[in-house]
Amino acid sequence: MNIKRFPLGALWTNCYIIWDENKDGFIVDPGGSADEVRDFVALNGIKVHLILLTHGHTDHIGGVCDVRDLAKCGVAVHVEDADCLTNADRNLSSIFDVPFTIKEAEKLLSDGDVLEIGTLKLKVIHTPGHTPGGICVVVSDADESVLISGDTLFARSVGRSDLPGGDEDTLYDSLKRLVGLPKDMRVLPGHGAETTIGTEERFNPYWPR
Q1: pLDDT score for 13
Q2: How far is CA 202 from the centre of its chain?
């Protein structure tokens, strides 16, 4: 499994490209101008099958239009955040006086869905609390697995729950769904540095005890 991170947009949202040995891959959360993502895809001959959104906030969807034509299966988002793409109030862009929308997603996701992209397997875990349709995704390729955590889990922290659509208790319950994942599993968050499940179990004050 190959992973490349691109911090994009005003909030340095982590956009990832993940691809297998045959160069079949997908893009996660293109949150701002994504010309460098396009360039990387072209330079490396990556076949992009999907744009995966961990949730629908504007800082995670802002660059979708820059790369949408690369993804032969379009955009995927959890059904509970589907209207974030087409509603500036739901994606919070209207709060910043820069209303922003894109066309609806081609694929709506639900908890437990398993997607296959080349040799990659993506398992969807519904983790609301930051947004109603927030998800984490376990990506596996042979014996290697990583967790895409979006804004559910950060290194030593968690996503905000005080924004419209957020709920602290719900977010805490969602974190419980990550307990039991392998301690050495890499965690690729929506903002900030990479971490591991074991590190967050030890040092994250929000981790379920």
Answers
A1: 98
A2: 23
SS3 36: helix
Q: Which of 34, 87, 35 is nearest to 57 (CA)?
A: 87
* Neighbouring residues of 205: CB distance < 8 A, sequence distance ≥ 6: 156
pTM over 0.85: yes
Cβ neighbours around 136 below 10 Å, total? 25
Structure tokens at 195: 């971490």
Question: 180 — alpha (psi -120 to 50), left (phi > 0) or beta?
Answer: left
What is the spatial distance between Cα 70 and Cα 130, in angstroms, rounded to a whole number? 28
Compute the average pLDDT of residues 97-105: 94
Average pLDDT over residues 183-197: 98
Structure-token pair, residue 55: 């949730």
Residue 174 sits at φ, ψ, to 5 deg, of -65, -40
Determine the residue type at 11. Answer: L
Q: Write the CB contacts of 180 (distance below 8 Å, at least 6 apart in sequence).
A: none
Question: Residue written as tokens 């659509």?
Answer: 165
C-alpha to C-alpha distance for 127 and 104, rounded to whole angstroms: 21
The fraction of the chain above a pLDDT of 70, given in percent, is 100
Counting residues of the chain whose pLDDT is more than 90, the rounded percentage is: 98
